[in-house]
Amino acid sequence: MLIDWFTVGAQAVNFLVLVWLLKRFLYQPILHAIDERERRIAAELADADAQRAAAQHERATFQHKNEAFDQQRAALFAHAMDEAKAERQRLLEEARQAADALRAERRDALRQEADQLDQALRRRTVQEVFAIARKTLADLAGASLEERLVAVLIERLRTMDDAAHAVFAQALRTATDPACVRSAFELPAAQRAALQAVIHTAFAPAVPVRFETAPDLVSGIVLTANGQQIAWDIADYLRSLERGVGELLKEKGQPDAGAGPAPSETAAPHP
Amino acid sequence: MHLSPDETLFWQYGFIKLNATIAFTWALMFVLAVGSKLITRKLSTELTRSRWQNLLEILVTGIERQIAEVGLPQPRQYLGFLGTLFLFVAAAALATVIPGYEPPTGSLSTTTALALCVLVAVPAFGIADQGLGGYLQSYLEPTFMMLPFNLISEVSRTLALAVRLFGNMMSGAMIIAILLTITPFLFPILMTALGLLTGMVQAYIFSILAAVYIAAATRTHKPAPLAPAPGT
To answer: How far apart are CA B90 and CA B199, in angstroms?
Structure first.
C-alpha cells in the first residue's frame, strides 16, 4: 500500500501550517511593501503634478511680469529719448543764441575798431595833406599854407552871394559872443589882421573876432558866428581818399578792414 | 528498492511514526519559512530594494498574476493557498539536486494530502463566495441528472491530481536511481536536469489546476448578465 494514512494526515497538517507560515512571513509583508511603494509612487507623481502645475503658474506669472516690465522699459526709454531730444534742442538754441551774441559783439568791436582806424587815418591824412600843401606852396609859390588858407577864406567872404551874405551879417550882428575863427594851426598876426579887416569891412565894423587853434579840425579854417559858419575844408578830398583806400583794401580781400568810413559830418552851408 | 520515502522510517511509536516524507517536509517548511522571515525582516518601501526582496516580489506578483489570468477576480484571497501549493511542490522538486534528498511529493501520501486539501478548499472557497445553497446548486447544473457525474468528477479529479504529481515525482527519482546503476556519470545529470524541469512543470500544473477548480466553483452559478439563474 503506497498510501500511509497517518502520513497523509500529517502532511495535510504540515501543508496547512506552511500556508499559515508563508502567509505570515511571505505574502503579507511582500504585498504590504509593494502596496506601500505603489502608494508612495502615486503620491510622488501627484506631488510632481502639483509642482508642475505650480511651476507653470509661476512661469505664466513671470512671463506676464516680464512683458509688463518690457512695456514699462520701452515707455521709459521713449520718455527719456523725448527728454534728451528736447534738451538737445534747448542746448542748440542756447548755443545759437550765444553764437549770435558773440558775433554781434565781435561785429561791434570790429566796427568800433574800424571807426577808430578811420578817424586816425583821417587825422593823419589831414596832417599829411597840410604838410604836403605847405611844402608845395612854399616850394612853388613862396607862400605859406596859412596865408593861402586865410586868402581863400577872405576870397570866399568877398564872393559870397547876397542871401548868404545877409544871413551871415545878421548872425554876426545879433551874436552875443564874438565871432570865432578856428584853424588847425596858429595864425600869424598879419593874417589875423587881414581877416579882421575883411570881416569889419564886409559885414559889421565893430564885431569882435576871436582866434582859436583846433589841431583836430578837419577843415583848414572856420569862421563861426551865432550858429552860422563859413569854412574851407578838405572833407571832399578826404572822402575821395577814403573811397580809394576802401577799394584798395577790398581788392586785397580784407572785408573786415573795408568797413565803410563814417560819413563826414561837416554841416557847412555851401555857398 | 522502495517506491516512496514513506518507507524510510526514523522513529515509530504505535500508530505515530516519523518517516522521511514528514522529515523532508519539515525541512522544506523550515527553509521556506525561515528564508521568508529573514528576507522580509527588513523590507524596503523605497524605490531601491535588495535582490532577495526583488526575487520574492517577482515570485509573489507572478503567482498573483497567474491566478488572476485563470479568472479569479481577487487573486489575493487565494494567494495563500494556491501560492503555497506552488512553492511547496516547486521547492520539493528543486531540492532534488541535493544528494540524499528525496522529494516528499514523491510520496503518494503527500500528494494525496495536497489533493485532499484541494478537494476541501474548492467547496470551501465556493461556499464562501456564493453561499452553501448556491454552491450545492452547482452540482445540479445544467440539470439534476448531472449530479452523479459532477460528484464523480469531483472525486476523480482529486485522484488525478494526487496520482499525476506522485507519478511524475516518483518516476523522476526512480529513473535517476535506475540510470545510476546502468550509466553512472553523464546521463543521470541530464535526467536530473530534466527532473528539475518536470518538477517545475508539475508545480505549475498542480497549482493552476487547483486555481481552475476554485475558479469553476466560485463562478459557475454566478448570474450571467443576460440570463439570470433561477432562485437568485
So the answer is: 6
SS3 label, residue A232: strand
Domain boundary among A142, A169, A198: A142
Question: Cβ of B22 and A10 within 8 Å?
Answer: yes
For residues A270 and A157, membership in a common domain is answered with: yes
Instruction: Give dist(CA B4, CA B15) in Å, integer.
Output: 18
Interface membership of A34 toward B (CB under 8 Å): yes
Q: What is the pLDDT along chain B (232 residues), one digit of tens a residue?
A: 567 888 888 888 888 989 999 999 999 999 999 999 999 888 888 878 889 999 999 999 999 999 999 988 889 999 999 999 999 999 999 998 888 888 899 888 999 999 999 999 999 999 998 889 888 888 887 888 889 998 999 899 889 988 898 888 888 878 877 887 887 777 778 888 888 999 999 999 999 999 999 998 887 444 444 444 444 3
A63 Cβ under 8 Å from any chain B Cβ: no
Structural domain including A50 reads: 1-142
Q: Which of B35, B87, B42, B78 is nearest to A33 (CA)?
A: B42
Report yes or no: A19 at the B interface, CB cutoff 8 Å.
yes
B89 contacts B203 by C-beta, under 8 angstroms: yes
End-to-end CA distance of chain A: 188
Helical segments of chain B, H only: 20-40, 51-70, 75-78, 84-94, 108-137, 147-182, 186-219
Alpha carbon distances (Å) from A268 to A225, A229, B50, B170: 13, 7, 137, 169
Last residue of a domain, one of A100, A117, A142: A142
**Burial of B109 by CB count in 10 Å (0-12 exposed, 13-18 middle, 19+ buried)?**
buried
Phi, psi (rounded to 5 degrees) for A101: -60, -45
Instruction: Verify whether the Cβ–Cβ distance B21 to A7 is below 8 Å.
Output: yes
Does residue A115 sit in the same domain as residue A187?
no
pTM to 2 decimals? 0.59
Residues A5 and A138 in one domain: yes
Contact partners, residue A5, CB within 8 Å, separation at least 6: B109
Cα separation of B110 and A151, whole Å?
182
In this structure, are A83 and A204 located in the same domain? no
Cα-to-chain-centroid distance, residue A168 = 53
Regarding whether A163 and A136 lie in a shared domain, the answer is no
Domain boundaries, chain B: 5-100+108-219
Q: Which residues of A touch B110 (CB under 8 A)?
A: 7-8, 11
- How many structural domains comprise chain A? 2
| Cβ <8 Å between B114 and A19 | no
